[in-house]
Amino acid sequence: MNKPNEALAYATTHANRYLAWCGEIASSPYTPLDMMEFAIISVQCRMPYAIEGFLATRLLVSEEEIAEALRQARVLNSAKKASYIMQIRQRDDALPVLNGIHYRQRQDIPGLKHTKLSFAVTLSYPFDSAVCCLDTHVARHYGQDGKVLSQSIKLYEKVESQVRDEAAQARLPIFAYQWA
Fold it and tell me: What is the pLDDT of residues 111-127, one digit of tens each?
């Protein structure tokens, strides 16, 4: 379950690159609600399509328009994701909070489980998040199956704790370190 020492060394050596990425995200014009919407759109979606769909929906206000824009961007489950987006736009308690651990445990945000809820938190607070997004790619570095992690919050938090410890060793925010 350990990232090889070489990976820790790599993260430390390339820290400036990862910190710059965090800075770009932190200085973006997007709000935590936008980040939540992006997390919804990105579920089971290739990143270029998710970005295209996200950008296409920024000014849209109806569920039908959002669904059509997502469909045209080749985002899977566009109607369902449009519905989820409209639901969170109408809630006062849906926004990611800095301590994402307790927020994520609620598990009541439509369309998102703990992995993608963590993604929304890290996008909203790239330098300060207490959680990380252990998607399929990151999970592999820890000898884990991303699907298994997405179904077990207990195992997810165990691996996440290890990532947090390694990030501290590398003197990087957990969000930056998870991608190293």
Answer: 888 888 899 999 999 99
